[in-house]
Amino acid sequence: MKLSDLKTPALVLDRARLERNVAAMSRRMKAHGVDLRPHMKTAKSAEVARLATAGHSGGITVSTLAEAAYFVRNGFRDITYAVGIVPAKLDAVAALQNEGARITVMTDNVPVARALAEESSAFDAPLRVLIEVDSGLGRGGVAPEDPALVEIARALAAGPNVEPVGVLTHAGHAYACSSVAGIEAVAEAERTAAVAAAGRLRDAGHRCPVVSVGSTPTALFGRSFEGVTEARPGVYVFFDLFQAGLGCCTADDIAISVLASVIGHRPGHGRLLIDAGSLALSQDRSTQSQPEDAGYGLVFDVSGRRRIADLRVARVNQEHGFVEAAGGAVPFDELPIGARVRVMPNHACMTAAAYDRYDVVDGGDEVVAVWDRVNRW
Amino acid sequence: MKLSDLKTPALVLDRARLERNVAAMSRRMKAHGVDLRPHMKTAKSAEVARLATAGHSGGITVSTLAEAAYFVRNGFRDITYAVGIVPAKLDAVAALQNEGARITVMTDNVPVARALAEESSAFDAPLRVLIEVDSGLGRGGVAPEDPALVEIARALAAGPNVEPVGVLTHAGHAYACSSVAGIEAVAEAERTAAVAAAGRLRDAGHRCPVVSVGSTPTALFGRSFEGVTEARPGVYVFFDLFQAGLGCCTADDIAISVLASVIGHRPGHGRLLIDAGSLALSQDRSTQSQPEDAGYGLVFDVSGRRRIADLRVARVNQEHGFVEAAGGAVPFDELPIGARVRVMPNHACMTAAAYDRYDVVDGGDEVVAVWDRVNRW
Fold this sequence. Notes:
Two copies of one chain form a homodimer.
Chain A: E1 10-14, H1 15-31, E2 35-36, H2 46-53, E3 60-62, H3 65-73, E4 78-81, H4 90-98, E5 102-107, H5 110-119, E6 127-133, H6 148-157, E7 162-169, H7 180-203, E8 210-213, H8 216-221, E9 230-231, H9 241-246, E10 256-266, E11 271-274, H10 278-281, E12 298-300, E13 307-316, E14 321-325, E15 340-344, H11 348-352, E16 357-361, E17 367-372
Parallel strand pairs in A: 1-16, 2-9, 3-4, 4-5, 5-6, 6-7, 7-8, 8-9
Antiparallel strand pairs in A: 1-10, 10-11, 10-15, 11-14, 12-13, 12-15, 13-14, 16-17
């Protein structure tokens, strides 16, 4: 099977780029003495997880319990579910534990901590719980100096079957940075928040073996990981145009793209149409805030290596992408109806979520493997 | 099974609202003597299609060949694939025809018309082809006065096994209107473009039995359908906040919503978190251009009938929705962690695409049915 044989739109994964991205992050984390617990919310793929955990403890991070169940089925045994738990989801956690997996959950809330302490008492294995710390994102988490931090730890410790394992934070506000210096500062804030919270817990007599941080930008640009035990970057496995705009990668590192067919010409509008629209590309517009606004994605040739003129997907409808030139002219002759292009995505997590498979290439146009992925909840 | 037993996030479909929406559009089209060929790109559900086609010819419209295959499997036999065809997709069309379905494809391009004429010669059944007309959207289609219109018809007529069936247009630019008068004008432009194109084809000696128009706003507000044979609205089956902002419905008509759980409280930020983020709600921001910007959706109680304070999803991350009050305060006491809410969507087509099932309710909290839907390509 070749790229020219695939139905479009299709999600193409360039294995060589993936392996390069994965190896670089692994080396970096090893150099800092930090375990890499990759966040699989981007790839949602057992094949990618195997590559990304190589040489590390084998632990992964997930964003849904459907991911957790998929990775347990695929042999992963150490999984952190890094979205605040609610008691109604404990049954699913217990079921996975009973299959032999170690599922670590997370909370930032005293009543939930009390409920975890109580409801886990009937579990076969201890329930592992992290306390979520806010290092500046303003999403989940308690501030390191918030008295609730120790109160949560105390509530967890009161549970006969809870294993409090430490603290976790995510500096997602690194995405708002416009310079490497800015990312470095956020990375340091992420580290110090987590380390400070761990210190307060230890001072209060609680164990805190895990000090978990992580985002792709802070993992790439953090200068110190002192006191940190693990990092949880995710999007680095694929990268995307937003990460390129942040300075985390170049367009040549982007490992996934959407294979699409040209389905219409509108020379009078300076526009051609492709069969990848808001469902196939996502409606992510994160590059809008960056110096180069990529629209809904940049248009490359079918090799994925050469951008065609300065084409980008300027607008999307459900199954139509409106391709326009940023400045010059659309090369209609190079792109007759039926021609194939590859669209580099703004945000890999969002684009990949529209697909249940990766068509894997090794730089060429031969599809060398098909990898599944898990979606939904 | 009750709503309180469902895993969250989940897509809830209110059958009473669906039936009301479907019946109203059916009555309206019958009153105008127009066949209703509902566009199933929104619902992608055989159960919905059965309701929506009741009392009409039974034909439907689809946006992908995966939809076409699903509906053929579910017994539908008359399907218009309303996205410009490319020759590489003809094999899939032929396969569906060989299962007994009548698949009508569409083009706006002379070389494609020639390819259809040639490649369909080996088909068992004639290939039915519509010519796409642009009534002002600027997406696909030839203008009614464009000489290419007749040239395409001539190229198709030269095919030994092509059945040219007429013209199709979609006035998607009705979505940019800010008044009913504006929608009425676009509807009239849609009708006159299609009718003019049909007239030109007939004048040139071509048959043109089908004159197809359609979008939800123009179907609802068009004053005349003279010369039109069928309409293809889609989102009206569910409606959404964008359609409410356009004046096509009220919030009480919206038939789908996302059931979500409260997973975090950040009173210091005036914010609570739910487990429905950019994947569960979509990143659609179409209401941004309307007087009431609904963010990523408005937050209702679990009955789906009462908006809670003036809460909306102000921001999304992949699995987190940031719920904030537009003006007043967030009622944290009413929404403890674990509480459930229903989020009304900006754009039903985008939100529903994240799910492979509908949990159907009949106004109450009992899940009375589970309906599947088809996704991907």
